[in-house]
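so i finally got all the pieces together for this one. its two components total, 577 residues if u count the protein bits. some of the lines might not be protein, just check the labels. i wanna see the whole assembly predicted at once instead of chain by chain like last time, that was a mess tbh
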Amino acid sequence: MINYIYQLVRPGYISVKYEDVKIENDVVIRPTYMAICQADQRYYRGLRDISKLKSKLPMALIHESAGEVVCDFTNSFSCGQKVIMIPNVKSKINDKEIYENYQKGSSFLSSGKDGFMREFVNLAPDRVVPINNIPEQFAAISEFISVGVHGVNRLKKFSHGNKKSFGVWGDGSLAYVVSCIIKQIFPESKLYVIGRDNFKLSQFLFADGTYFSENIPEDFSVDHAFECAGGEGSYYAINDIIKYINPQGTAVLMGVSEHKIAINTRDVLEKGITLIGSSRSGREDFEKAAEFLGKSEFQKRISRIIYEDSPVKTIGDIHRVFETDLKNPFKTVFKWDL
Amino acid sequence: MIFGAIVAGGVGNRMNLSGLPKQFLPLGDSEKPIIIHTLEKFLICKKLDFIYLGVHKDWVGYAEELLDKYSIDKKRVFVTPGGADRNLTILNIIDAIEKNHGKSDEHIIVTHDAVRPFVTLRMINENIEAAEKFGACDTVIGAIDTIIESKDGELISSIPNRSTMYQGQTPQSFKMSALKNLYGDLSDEEKSVLTDACRIFIFRNKPVKLVKGDTFNIKITTVSDYKIAQAILGGNLGD
């Protein structure tokens, strides 16, 4: 089938690639609602290293999208089924000790391969998760929620049993989603959020406490922590975590930084801290994300970080949603109508 | 109900590439016939209840076998013999639809050239919406080159303002009964100058809504068009 693929050819420039796609062994999905990730924004703005841009572009952006099955040659889904799409491309290596998203040889749509900005997307059935009764505006950010689920589950699996309190460093979308998931998985634990922006922190109404990063009480401590700051903020967040985390605590590092971050390893050693790197997600994380999104309380919380821009009907509209996203402190979603 | 009508009445003597009418030529890496690429876009539009292919009477059997070869659901897709020209092929399709599904003022028909395989789902959906709301619509792109009118082919008669000029593509979509009734109301002289179905509505001062097309929604009519389409898709250019 002839597909229209909307590729970023260089920062700020979108061009259409036409491709005769073989669909005979795949599920064919029409993307319906998409969300912008900061990684997309960094490609769009040209904020990645020149060498990375040269090696990855041209490429269709967006790896967060809901969709609808339009036909399925694998007979796994019925036409019209609402779904979320998994952008992680599994490796041929199947080491059961390793999560699919870290497996050698795995790849990712919208990082060197075309993302979801296409007329339709063809995927293997295990890259498709059916959803029911989830508004598509919310389903659009399923991948983002699955990344949070993956991080929280890794901490759950590898940390010691004391889980009276969690600290989340960061006040953006990732910190918000991780906080929502902590409240789902550890409802009895205390949750504290440390950030820098008064407006953003004010959205964490369900947290047991919020602090400005320059104003953390000296006697503050948490059993475990999540670093969700990213960028330059990672340095301050990680070193704050090392300072305030209880001995043998586990810290999950989730914020992406373009630069290397200096870490106070002396105190990491002294306190016996476990640092876990966490990025992306796999099918089981998507399924859990869909389960959470099916809950009305979770939907209500998530709705506070979703801004729906006007539908994308032209290439000009693609530029518009990236502009909108720059001014939006949280997640920008939009109907895909191109 | 909403019907797709893919018009493929030609016998392809302009192409000189093979004995095949142009709509059956292979296209792209998959080397699927052009008409199958076009049909695939119509098939993924769930708003379309049934799709009819209007094919020259000598090629009906061939088209039927193509549907079998590409495992296309023959409960949703039907082949109908075409007429002497494009509009008569559409009318033949309408007759077949009314015979199979009955008459209704609510029926919408989305007509499309089989040799425009770069049609998109958006265009089809917007056609349906526009035909439901306005009764008729035409898919167009804004004119890029200045349009020149010459009545004698020697001298310029007029140069219309380019900003109000468009180039017509397909799909063109209509309320089916209105199309049939208006066509029946035309004089033989009016029928003789019809180059496309939208003109039937224009002759009777009925509104025709514009739907945004795409520069690459090209009509593969000549050898050059075919080579361009192959080049766009990275298919075999041949000679």
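The CA atoms of residues 3 and 109 of chain B lie 5 Å apart.
Chain B has a mean pLDDT of 92.
anyway lmk what u think
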